[in-house]
Amino acid sequence: MARNSDNDMCKEERKRESFFKVLQRVDISSENMRALPYDFVRSFSNNELSRKMKIKARWGSSWEVEICKNPRFYFMEKSGWEKFVSDNALGASEFLTFTHKGNMRFTVNIFMQDGKEMLQPPQSMSFMASSRSPKREQGIPSLATTIAAESNGGGNYKRKLNFEKKKAEESHNSKRTDKVFSVQRESAGASSSSVTEFSMFIKKSYLIYMWFPKSVQSIHMPKQRTIFKIHHPNMKKSWNVVYVVSGTKSSFSAGWKGLAQEYPLAVGDTCKFSFIKQHELILFVSKP
């Protein structure tokens, strides 16, 4: 009986095994960053370590991450780890604790740089959205006007109103088509003053983190961490990149290095970012 009690206690202790990570501004996807502590791993069997880790956040979202091994240590598989980092907009010196709950299930607690715990998923800033009140299209008569014309027995006037309404709708649709064509043309690289855009010159350090000057940060970028989707101009490739704000500085962090390698970017390139949605960009690159 005592032995069973000891075994149960041992199992409970293993369930509560935990480790922490500090996501400093280094290569957030390196094997060292993804490594599992040796003292933590040695309490698990090879069979357990062959399973996927299931990481669950305080608000219920979860991620499955494979466990890999090199000659020195076990570590979390890159794509699963990067998905977890990207979804939570991490990369600004957050403090994370991973607590084992049994069967390779973990709860993660995320503490921000200011010491506050993240209790809900990061919210994207709607920094380009503006409130617009619905307006009646000019030249299109209201229903009340049509009813009034009918009640006055004006059959000819009614036909005239319908004709003018149809004409106004055709004009409106024509303008809408022109607008759609204009947006598509701008997405293909044509310049337009109506498109929000900014340019950055690539320095060596910008191949790892893209730091924004205050002029760009204050005018174009949100005031809190946001996940941006950045497209190649051919729209066949896109990257999720975490935008982080730390004090008076801001940068593209997690995901940016991968973009720079895959696009690829090089020192001396000029990058033009054009907004197509509130947190969606097309990246045009000019070589020197």
From TrEMBL:
Where do transmembrane segments lie in this chain? none
Occurrences of domain TF-B3 (ranges): 19-114, 237-288
Location of this chain's protein in the cell: Nucleus
Any GO molecular function: DNA binding
**GO cellular component entries:** nucleus
Which PANTHER family does this UniProt record tie to the protein? B3 DOMAIN-CONTAINING, B3 DOMAIN-CONTAINING PROTEIN REM23
Q: What is the name listed in the Swiss-Prot or TrEMBL entry for this protein?
A: TF-B3 domain-containing protein
